[in-house]
Amino acid sequence: MTDTSPARDINPACIRYYHAHLYYEDAAGLAAARQLAEAAAARFELRVGRFHEKPVGPHPKWSCQLSFAPEHFGKIVPWLALNRGELDIFVHLGTDDDLFDHTQGVIWLGHSHPLDLSGFTADT
């Protein structure tokens, strides 16, 4: 008999936030990311972070972070999926375990990209 139980049983209440990282790699992509972030901020309760013009942290491309509460996920993420244009978006949950959040708690809108996870350890 095969065990089909989940490896972990984690309560979703541990999700404190979500981040959506808009990925771009040139001036045209930066302009598209700014436009998308402005439209999202006008429509939803979220915070727009800095627009980086170099890879930062684990992110392999230029990026901007949108931060929002878990209760807004069901409206924001579908809207981003439909309005992202050519941008790739990395969405992850925030549980205070960065390694888990950036590997197991992720959704890609568009193409996925390998992250640099060398700065993360479990429960960091």
UniProtKB/TrEMBL annotation:
Keywords: Dioxygenase, Oxidoreductase. InterPro entries: DOPA-like_sf (IPR023389), DOPA_dioxygen (IPR014980). SUPFAM superfamilies: DOPA-like. GO terms for molecular function: dioxygenase activity. This is DOPA 4,5-dioxygenase family protein.
